[in-house]
Write a structure and sequence with these properties.
The protein is mostly helical and about 180 residues long. It contains seven helices and no strands. Helix 3 runs antiparallel to helix 5 and helix 4 (about 60-70) packs antiparallel against helix 5 (about 75-160). The termini are far apart.
Length: about 180
């Protein structure tokens, strides 16, 4: 701090964490905690943002402690930072697996919903098919009955003597 050639910005840079363990600045935290509408991101960008947040946010308090430790005891700070870095990498892999698992669950749910929809559609089509078959059977029976009656009428027309014998009233025969 007594060095005349260093600016206050340079002094702040020397007190920061190693590059693999960044600390969110107050401005970043205020943006993170604000309830502003986030800019619209594509799904891969949103996923990358979510992975980054899940991987870094839990380590922010310990990174502050490491920054203080580096200021107070630089010899102990490096191994501690290295250990935290290893835990952070492990955490990142767990977060990545967790996110991938959630994506698989969402895809499975979508597939289950699609399967349910397709089964319902199949069942509806089967019901329609069965109704059409029953109607077809009814129409075939009605057509057969009509055909038999029509044949009977045509036979009676071709043979009028059978008609008179078959059941015309007696007064019709006398005329």
């Amino acid at each position: 701090m007594n060095a005349p050639n260093t600016s206050p910005d340079q002094e702040n840079e020397t007190e920061q964490q190693p590059s693999e363990l960044p600390i969110l600045s107050e401005k970043d935290k205020s943006q993170e905690n604000s309830h502003h509408v986030p800019p619209l991101l594509s799904p891969p960008e949103q996923e990358a943002e979510a992975r980054h947040n899940l991987a870094t946010v839990p380590f922010q308090p310990i990174l502050k402690v490491l920054a203080d430790l580096e200021r107070d005891d630089p010899k102990f700070a490096f191994p501690a930072a290295r250990l935290v870095g290893l835990y952070r990498r492990l955490w990142e892999s767990c977060v990545s697996k967790h996110i991938d698992g959630e994506k698989l669950e969402q895809r499975n749910l979508a597939l289950k919903e699609a399967g349910t929809h397709l089964r319902k559609e199949r069942d509806d089509l089967q019901v329609r098919h069965d109704k059409q078959l029953s109607r077809l059977c009814f129409f075939e029976q009605a057509l057969e009955s009509s055909r038999e009656r029509l044949i009977s009428v045509l036979d009676d027309w071709n043979h009028p003597s059978r008609l008179n014998l078959a059941g015309l009233p007696d007064n019709a025969r006398g005329e």
